[in-house]
Hints:
single chain; alpha+beta; Beta-galactosidase, Chain A, domain 5; Glycosyltransferase; eleven-stranded mixed β-sheet; 38 strands; elongated; disordered N terminus; disordered C terminus
Amino acid sequence: MPGQGKPPVPQAAPVAAEGGTALIRLEPLDDDTALDREWLCTNGLGAYAMGSLAGANTRRYHGLLVAALAPPLGRTVLCAKLDETFDRGDGPVALGANEFRDGSRNPWGVSHLQSFRLEGARPTWRYAVPGGALEKSIWMAHARSTTCVRYLTTGTGGRLRLAVFATYRDYHHETRGAPEWRFDVRPIPTGATITAFPGAHPWRIIGPPGAIFVTAGDWWWRFLHRRERERGLDCEEDLFLAGYLHFPLSAGRPAVVLISSEPPGQELGDIAPARAWQQQQQRERHLLRLAHADAHTDPVRAQLVLAADQFLVRRGNAPVGEAGTILAGYPWFSDWGRDTMIALPGLTLATGRHAEARRILATYARYLDQGMLPNRFPDHNESPEYNTADATLWYFQALAAYSAATGDDTLIAELFTALDEVIAWHLCGTRYGIGVDADDGLLRAGEEGTQLTWMDAKVGDWVVTPRQGKPVEINALWINALGHMDAWAQRLGRPARPRGTYTQTYADLAARARRSFAARFWYAGGGYLYDVIDGPDGAPDPSLRPNQLLAISLPHSALDRTRARSVLELIQRHLLVPTGLRTLAPSAAGYQGEYGGDPWRRDGAYHQGTVWPWLLGAYVDARRRVGLRAGEVQTLCRPLILHLGEAGVGSISEVFCGDPPHRPGGCPAQAWSVAELLRVLSENPPLHLSPICYNKGTVTADA
Length: 703
């Protein structure tokens, strides 16, 4: 029968963590909490496993094995889910959960769910079963396209039956079943091999010793993806029930199930399934040692270090198991140049992963073309897209951060000629109207119908925030890049002029641009900076936006301290909220305080008031320049730290609504959101919190 909600569940007793501290624990969980919050596991190759805490797939992007068939992209949902049923001999207890289009829920194991916690990076559920409890933990083997599911009972034993639901589709789409579409399901010792159709990539489910697989071959129709319905998208899916995996569970003895698209015998490399749990624990401890993050004395930063690892993935010729790029967000973003450069200091330098930072920077340098880095690597290995005015300029700042963190100038020396060419291309002009205006030395950018800054929302032919002309943060980044080139040229004994032939030096170019910036961007009537000057209509744009923060926060600042204080006072008053900064002041025409609904409504609000947490990093840097009060960083960061127990549990969301209560939206795990919070916290004393515990959705945490 369909589930009808859940009865009250008593407060779960604390569960001792195996090999680590569980900073985040949710107990008890009502239906709404379990459906609204999500978990995520990744493998460093672009593949992932993800779902709601309830067990029901609430997004098209959810699945137990979403394989990257063309790493780090080509993400394909293979195993949609497992539904567990436990039986000790006195009647089955269904622990899985599903929602259907007609509103029914069947089964609805949330009624047995006592608690959820993160054991390091491993999501862990605790269910009440007759005679005791059953715990389930999920993780992905690093550098393997393999999801591991571990089951452990306490106080009781019995048998577990797993209903194995299969599909085969691009993760942006939904599956429509058909009676004539029969997956090829072939039992193997302790499991089965499943192939959706001839030529499809096969995958396997492998149980513990003594497991038996029984084929089924039925279609289940019209599962509901409630998050897609909220987003105004196709929200129904059919799944193929490949069969049932049965195996015994003995009290206190864990059983591990593998779901893998690796070749037979290579699911875990040379690691035995029984050792997979310990191997994952060891990797998490290694990451924390690299970052000098102690899970007991600095649990917040430890949690963020593990979250940071999820975005670092292999690309190109990076060694197996090491990163070559950064995925911008889960579940739907690929690797974006801008996001990578902004996130790199927090994800790699603040975590002690210096070699991977260097490799990412070197990897992106190979894609420089006409003085530009790619904006985005498309999902299906098409040619990179270069529609960005700022990704290349952020590259200079990422290089500077790498050099400052490591004391290593060899990479800058190796890339100096390429960097010099970037400056030269910007001086003479490159794609999309990007080039220096000879009249004032400032950088212009933009053509009709293009979106080149980070405020890049576009629906059909509608560019929501075109910002053609001379955007304020693009010119702050340009001045910063010139300042870095001048410093590097002096330090490395390289020519001080672009291409060694330009009349003006880097210092000359920076000084001229800074003078023009001060004269032309200052809005005296408002006490802040114009957002764009020299736009198509010739009038400066006085919209109060956070982009001007970069004129204060970057190392080679474009704004004096007196004006910086004026800007920060207005930003604090109109844009700063607990979870980040609004993208537009509420008093402005066009402000949108709610982010949600169909693509038109969402993208229309994306940069028109929606809050972005990554901007908190620039805000803290800017405040530090004019003077921070003791403890102010911890106060500013605390709401985002508490957010670790909401939305994507253990991570930080992409955006929040501009209006209170600032509901989270977008990707539940976003690279630069995690990175900037981690970077800021790594530069300040540890913030001590007790475990973040939720009781009926309310956050409690003691400093």
